[in-house]
Structure formats: C-alpha cells, structure tokens
Amino acid sequence: MQIISMFALERIEHWKTVLEINHWDIICSRIDEDQVVDSLEGNTYGHEFVGIERNFQIQVGIIYHTRPLDEEDIIHELLHVRYPDWSEEKVDFWTTLLIGKPAMQHAKAMEYLLPTG
C-alpha cells in the first residue's frame, strides 16, 4: 500500500481548484528509480522521475514519482492536465512563475505572458 503525504494531497486539491480542473481525479503512484529508463543517459536505469499519465476520456491523471512530491512538482504536472497542448518549456516557465521564482530571464517570457503566447 502506498502512502502519500497530507501535504501533497492538500496541495493537489489546492492547485486543482486554482487551475479549474476539480473534475479530474489525480492519483499518485510511487515508483522505484530502477523502473525509470533515461534515453538521454544512454537508456540507463535508476533515475529520478516525476511525470503524469493523463486519461482525458475519464479525466484521471496518475502522477508517477520516485521521490516525495513538492509543490513545484504538483504545479508542473497539473499544468500538463490543464494545458495539454503546451510545450514542456512553456509548462516549465509557468511552473516557475506560479511557484514564485524569478521567471523573466526565461528566453520566451514575454511570448508566454502575452495573450497570443
């Protein structure tokens, strides 16, 4: 049986509300680093991972993670649910902005902040 922290559960519910995705069920599943293969590291096993699998038909997301989730992880993964067409770079930018870190040095900051971005 997997146990998720009350912090993570509370933050997931908070950010589901902020991002207006309350109708989604978000499940967290802890996985072992040995289950993760990194293609950028020569297809080697044993890497840290946080990612979400989304089923848009039944509106369920599963956040797979090898370490305890922090708020930045939660925001990032839920942005993938709310804005499925956004690039990873755009999700990274908005995660940085929403967590309260400086984001204006990002190469595409103004593009992402303007209504057409």
Set down the secondary structure blueprint.
Blueprint: H1 6-18, E1 25-30, E2 37-38, E3 44-45, E4 50-55, E5 60-65, H2 71-82, H3 88-99, H4 109-113
Helix pairs in contact: 1-2, 2-3
Biggest sheet, strands in spatial order?
1-5-4
- Which word captures the global form? globular
What class would the helix/strand composition place it in? alpha+beta
Strand percent estimate = 15-25%
Quaternary class: single chain
User: What is the string of helix and strand elements?
Assistant: HEEEEEHHH
Calculate Rg over CA atoms: 15 Å
Low-confidence stretches: none
Which sheet architecture does the biggest sheet show? 3 strands, mixed
Number of strands: 5
Indicate the percent of residues in helices.
25-40%
Mean pLDDT rating = 89
Number of helices: 4
Distance between the termini: 42 Å
Structural description of this entry:
- The protein has a domain at 1-69.
- The chain is 36% helix and 19% strand.
- It has 4 helices and 5 strands.
- The protein has a 3-stranded mixed β-sheet, with helices on one face.
- A hairpin with a 4-residue loop joins strand 4 (50-55) and strand 5 (60-65).
- Helix 2 packs across helix 3.
What key attributes describe this structure?
117 residues; alpha+beta; 3-stranded mixed sheet; two-stranded antiparallel ribbon; 5 strands; 36% helix; globular
How would you summarize what this structure contains?
The protein is an alpha+beta fold. The protein has helices at residues 6-18, 71-82, 88-99, 109-113; strands at 25-30, 37-38, 44-45, 50-55, 60-65. The strands form two sheets. A three-stranded mixed sheet has the order 1-5-4, covered by helices on one side. A two-stranded antiparallel ribbon has the order 2-3.
